[in-house]
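Hi support team,

I've been running sequence recovery on a batch of backbones for a student project. Most finish fine, but this one hangs at about 90% for roughly twenty minutes before it completes. I'm not sure whether the input is malformed or the queue is just slow. I've pasted the structure tokens below so you can try to reproduce it. Let me know if you need the job ID as well.

Thanks,
M.K.
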């Protein structure tokens, strides 16, 4: 019962993240169009338009990848994975996710230290603090580590074959077929 509730909560949170990502992308489009209209229709270019669009794009890209994009939708070099038997895929999954999670976990203190160091700098036009602007990168890196640890648990668990075999076929078709 608790597992069903947790699954429903995660689905709702994922849906909320999708909506927020869509709104951020729409915000980029609106700021871009507003900049064009102000420059070419009213001959009064927006000084802040490019800066806001770039900041929203940064947040949209990192937070969408952290909370919306599924692992299987990322581009992957999987030639060795495709050639490996099920146990080999499991070993690759455990080694890869464990190693990268450990490397990124060790890098997190330095990443957060640098983000916190950026409080001294500000954006050019709006003069927003850069630590706030780039804080989304810290959230992104934490979520990458969480996803890698979740993958490690999947490959190490009792039902590892489901996760290995789920990746065995193409997840989507491309234009060629």
């Amino acid at each position: 019962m608790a597992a069903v509730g947790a699954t429903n909560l995660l689905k709702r949170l994922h849906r909320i993240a999708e909506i927020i990502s869509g709104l951020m992308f729409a915000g980029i489009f609106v700021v871009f169009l507003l900049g064009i209209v102000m420059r070419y229709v009213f001959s009064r270019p927006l000084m802040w338009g490019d800066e806001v669009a770039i900041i929203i794009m940064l947040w949209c890209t990192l937070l969408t990848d952290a909370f919306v994009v599924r692992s299987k939708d990322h581009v992957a070099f999987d030639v060795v994975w495709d050639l490996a038997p099920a146990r080999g895929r499991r070993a690759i999954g455990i080694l890869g996710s464990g190693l990268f999670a450990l490397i990124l976990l060790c890098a997190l203190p330095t990443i957060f230290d640098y983000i916190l160091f950026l409080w001294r700098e500000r954006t050019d036009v709006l003069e927003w603090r850069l630590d706030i602007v780039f804080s989304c990168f810290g959230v992104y890196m934490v979520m990458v580590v969480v996803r890698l640890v979740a993958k490690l648990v999947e490959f190490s668990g009792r039902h590892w074959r489901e996760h290995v075999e789920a990746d065995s076929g193409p997840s989507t078709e491309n234009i060629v077929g």
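--
Follow-up from support: It reproduced on our side and the slowdown came from queue contention, not your input. The two ends are 41 Å apart (CA to CA). No action needed from you.
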